[in-house]
Predict the 3D structure of the following.
Amino acid sequence: LFYAGIPAALLLASLGGWWMAGRAFRPVNRVLAGAQRLGAQRLGERLPVPDSDDELRRLALTLNRLLDEIERAFQSQQRFVADASHELKTPLTILRGEIEILRKKTPSPEESREFLRSASEELDRLTQTVENLLILARADAGRPLDRSRAVRLDEVAVQAVERLMPFARAAGVRCSVRVEDAAGEPLVGGDPDLLGSLVFNLLHNAIKHSAAGQTVEVAVTTDAGGSRVAVRDHGAGIRPENLPHLFERFSRARTPSPRGAEGTGLGLAISKWIAEAHDGRLEVESRPAEGSVFTATFPRLPIEESHPAAPARAADA
């Protein structure tokens, strides 16, 4: 009887082991099945997380966090491609249309000059759009900035005015720069090219929304609260209901320009990201029919981290 019971005991032990192994591997199988379902079109799904507090649960949580990062990167890539297609299509379409017209007839000297003027404007727009899209790609990638360099906001403001002098003169708009540095030099630790893009975008918007004969004022100040640059225009202003959407990508929340010029809708979104990437903030105050002032505020660079810099120059257009 004893020997007869051995096979039965072995059978029961095998069945029990098989059942326990199946139960133990059931969470593993669920995780594997979830992983096999993942793909480019199903990046929103996540692996099932076991209830047990063990290595498998920690592995599933780690993989889900990695999937979060992959999904964000994939969405950023898709958004960048869509942004680029949207913004590059319009000027290219205009250029192609004008070239087709010129191919069909011999233009007069006046028509040739008008074509060159229009083509130059569209090429400028293309250049600005590409620069903006590259900055957006950098923002979406989440790469940290090198903030070891001391940048003088007054010099950045003067350089932006100098770059936009031809645009301001063509629009009949005057630009002025005022620097108040009694409390110290307006130094910011950051990327001079990005800070230059921020001030350029704010100034370009201000000029574009100013009527001929008006003045755009740029003020650089420093106090205990930080260093700031403010750009004020005296244009049509912004309606209160549009202010919450002003810094969104492709926003057209501002009142149309007096000259009918359309922007890309990216400049303010980029400027806001640049300010925040430097631990600063970008704010706006506006009243309809009175104008707007955009103010970028940055933490002051500690004295021991600053480096000597040449004094800023005054600039007017």
The first helix runs from residue 2 to 37. The longest strand covers residues 215-223. Strands lie at 150-152, 174-180, 187-189, 215-223, 226-233, 281-287, 291-298. The radius of gyration is 30 Å.
